[in-house]
Every structure is written in C-alpha cells, then in structure tokens.
Amino acid sequence: MKLKPQHAQFLAERIILELSRSNLVQINATLPNLNRLATTLIKEDMQQEYAIESKARELLDAHQDTIEEDEVNEKQVFAMIKKQIAKERGFLLSYKERYSQLAHEILDALFEESYIDFNVPENVVKNFIIESIDSYFDFHEHAYDNAIEKIKNYKRKLIPGSEEYELIFAKLYEEELNKRG
C-alpha cells in the first residue's frame, strides 16, 4: 500500500503507541516528541517518492507526442521512468524493503535523540516497528475492501470515479475505520 500524506501522523502514532506498550524499549521522552520525530521521517520518505513521481511525470510529458505516436502504454512507461529515477537516487520502491529501511531510520533517530533505550537486539525492535507498519496497512486495506464491498451491494449501481461514488466511498471508508478504532 502506498502511503498518503494523511497516513503519516496516524502511522507514526501507531508505531510509537505500540512501542510504548511493549517491553522492548524504555521511553525517555514524551510521546508527542517521539510522534513528531517519526512523523517527520515518514513524511520525508513520502516526499522523496513524490519528487521521483513528479520528475517521471515531467519526463513523460516532455515525450508525450512520441508516446502517442508509437501507441505506447503510458502507465508502463511511467513505471519504467520512475524505477530508473529511483535507482539513480538510491530510493527503494519495493514496499517491503522500503518500510524495512524506514523502520530502521525511525529506530536510529529515536535512539540517537535519546528518546528510547533498549536492552534487546536492535533487529527485534526494528522488526517490531515493521510489524506495526504492516498491521497499520492491514487495518486500512480491510476497511478499504469492506467499503468497496458495501458499494458493490448498493441498491443502485454507482459509477467508479464519479463524484457520487467518491463521496459515498469516503463516507463508507470512514465508517469502517471508525468501527475498527
């Protein structure tokens, strides 16, 4: 699942809350300080991806005439350009690798700022953070799937992408999230 800007703070809060409830770390700072640091790191990661996508879109737009003439699949070309730019910048696109790296960055930053201490191996804490990230995404994917299922069973058929569809989806998605806490 791709991170969206509104996810950054909630993901950070979930990671920090779960860490604080575990017996893996000793918290040496206030939770809001830990949340701010984790949120900043998550947002920086997202900004890197958006910058890569923006550059890829720029290059794609510059060659739009050729793409149309050759009848090339624009999505595939975009993905190839994005992959190349990410490789040049050393940015991981694989979500599994990327979130593993992000978990490590969060752990390192929390430790370097003396916000936490731990008496277990570093990998244990990093893996715990990765599990928090995974459970966050599982939670949202389940809510998303349930909202889609409800729309499919709607009395009248809605056209995906229409304003009405998007409004109803947003309402159902929010209801699903609220049900799950």
Automatic annotation (TrEMBL):
Alphabetical list of Pfam families matching this protein: DUF507 (PF04368)
Q: Which InterPro entries match?
A: DUF507 (IPR007463)
Any idea what this protein is called?
Competence protein
Q: Give the species.
A: Helicobacter trogontum
Lineage of producing organism:
Bacteria, Pseudomonadati, Campylobacterota, Epsilonproteobacteria, Campylobacterales
